[in-house]
Recover the amino acids of this structure.
């Protein structure tokens, strides 16, 4: 892999991208069946994966390097430095069930672009779409062993964490597991993308009815099983009652059903265990004083889109990552108060800020403690070329193709 020329990596990545795009409908069905993701969103994920490979193809042609004069001090006279970046070595990737294709691709595509072999462990619940991807990669002209996609149990997968022959571990999953893996990883580099309880601010400067579709998408897409699921909404007191009414009406209209039907917007969760956990958290919050606006019922793996108010610190639905179709809506009176509420968490991945005030936006950018701030949209929005990652318990390092490539390379300087 390390001997591949840029044009060879470009052609391989471009081939994979084009093949994914050509087969998006069939691959989307596989993804939908294994993850219970509504078909429209499953196909969209395949399209995103194709785009991620294309971004990696472009980045493979502009890997960093540089030149610097070293005569800044007298003893550097007539000396110069040439800086090049070389592949770090073997990469291990561990990807989750919720975006089984695209989040795996965010590890595989940068590794190919960087010239690093990669071993990927897909989630045990959703290995089929990545195995279908492996068949495509096998035809891309890469050296044997360049990409290995290996379903395995957790005990076997732990070898990816502890083996010193692996130079970088890239993990996407829960904070509890991620930080524990970091402790076990020894001297290797570690990149963690760990999720959170993303907040949304709705300022008095915006018209609530114009943002409901975006908020609904952020709240309930894929039953809230998204690292950047919009979980905590902080709405200005002047808009609070209207916003609750609009969200409740919209949530009740979401089309439930078979994920393979084209018009299904929300389906079952990944398994009954997680649906029961969400049910327990909601019931516990209600006992602690939260008010149920809508939802709050479970049928097997399916949990109704649920809206709560009167939530606060100390409730799991407020403090922790719900990873389910549940949102909390609370009010604020000053923008500074809203920012304080956004920051009052151990997480810090992304947040959304709906405001038409430049002053408020600048204040948010300066003071909100997250890796990303999304203006006039929900935190669930992500573009695959942008830096993506969190602070605090939400992670370590950044994904996004260019940024992942940099983590997979080492700088070397030639002084002459």
């Amino acid at each position: 892999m390390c001997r591949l020329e840029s044009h060879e990596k470009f052609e391989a990545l471009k081939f994979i991208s084009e093949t994914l795009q050509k087969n998006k409908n069939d691959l989307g069905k596989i993804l939908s069946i294994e993850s219970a993701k509504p078909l429209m969103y499953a196909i969209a994920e395949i399209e995103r994966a194709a785009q991620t490979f294309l971004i990696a193809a472009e980045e493979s042609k502009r890997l960093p390097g540089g030149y610097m004069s070293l005569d800044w001090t007298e003893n550097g006279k007539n000396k110069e430095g040439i800086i090049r970046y070389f592949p770090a070595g073997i990469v291990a990737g561990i990807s989750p069930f919720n975006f089984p294709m695209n989040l795996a691709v965010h590890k595989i595509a940068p590794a190919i672009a960087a010239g690093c072999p990669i071993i990927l462990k897909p989630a045990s619940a959703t290995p089929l779409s990545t195995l279908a991807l492996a068949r495509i990669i096998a035809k891309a002209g890469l050296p044997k062993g360049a990409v290995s996609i290996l379903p395995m149990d957790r005990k076997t997968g732990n070898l990816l964490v502890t083996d010193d022959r692996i130079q970088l571990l890239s993990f996407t999953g829960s904070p509890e597991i991620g930080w524990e893996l970091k402790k076990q990883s020894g001297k290797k580099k570690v990149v963690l993308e760990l999720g959170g309880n993303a907040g949304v601010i709705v300022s008095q400067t915006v018209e609530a009815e114009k943002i409901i579709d975006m908020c609904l998408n952020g709240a309930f897409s894929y039953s809230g099983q998204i690292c950047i699921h919009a979980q905590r909404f902080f709405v200005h007191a002047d808009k609070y009652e209207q916003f609750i009414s609009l969200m409740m009406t919209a949530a009740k209209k979401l089309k439930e059903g078979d994920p393979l039907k084209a018009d299904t917007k929300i389906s079952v969760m990944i398994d009954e265990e997680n649906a029961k956990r969400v049910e327990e958290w909601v019931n516990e919050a209600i006992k602690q004083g939260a008010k149920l606006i809508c939802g709050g019922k479970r049928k097997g793996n399916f949990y109704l889109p649920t809206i709560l108010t009167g939530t606060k610190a100390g409730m799991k639905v407020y403090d922790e990552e719900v990873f389910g179709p549940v949102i909390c809506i609370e009010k604020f009176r000053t923008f500074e108060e809203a920012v304080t509420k956004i920051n009052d968490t151990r997480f810090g991945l992304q947040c959304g800020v709906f405001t038409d005030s430049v002053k408020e936006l600048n204040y948010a950018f300066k003071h909100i403690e997250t890796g990303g701030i999304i203006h006039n949209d929900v935190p669930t929005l992500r573009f695959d070329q942008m830096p993506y990652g969190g602070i605090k318990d939400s992670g370590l390092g950044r994904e996004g193709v260019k940024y992942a490539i940099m983590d997979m390379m080492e700088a070397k300087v030639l002084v002459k």
